[in-house]
UniProtKB/TrEMBL annotation:
<keyword id="KW-1133">Transmembrane helix</keyword>
<feature type="transmembrane region" description="Helical">
    <location>
        <begin position="12"/>
        <end position="36"/>
    </location>
</feature>
<keyword id="KW-0812">Transmembrane</keyword>
<protein>
    <recommendedName>
        <fullName>DUF3953 domain-containing protein</fullName>
    </recommendedName>
</protein>
<feature type="transmembrane region" description="Helical">
    <location>
        <begin position="43"/>
        <end position="64"/>
    </location>
</feature>
<keyword id="KW-0472">Membrane</keyword>
Length: 65
């Protein structure tokens, strides 16, 4: 059995990841929900917003961490 060593994660990185996940996960969830409700335009907008937040997050993490 292996354990994940989380001692290298700084508090700033943990908070940053947590904040982006609080934004990112609901956007994708709402996008999927809108697709099931046959509201394709709203679904695509939520998915596109989620993708944009993901790109911003990746850029932010590569610059600061």
């Amino acid at each position: 059995m292996t354990y994940v060593d989380t001692s290298d994660i700084s508090a700033q990185m943990f908070v940053t990841v947590l904040l982006f996940l609080i934004v990112l996960a609901p956007l994708f969830s709402l996008g999927i929900l809108r697709f099931f409700q046959s509201k394709k335009k709203a679904g695509f907008m939520y998915m596109l917003s989620g993708l944009l937040v993901y790109v911003v997050f990746q850029t932010f993490m590569s610059i600061f961490f």
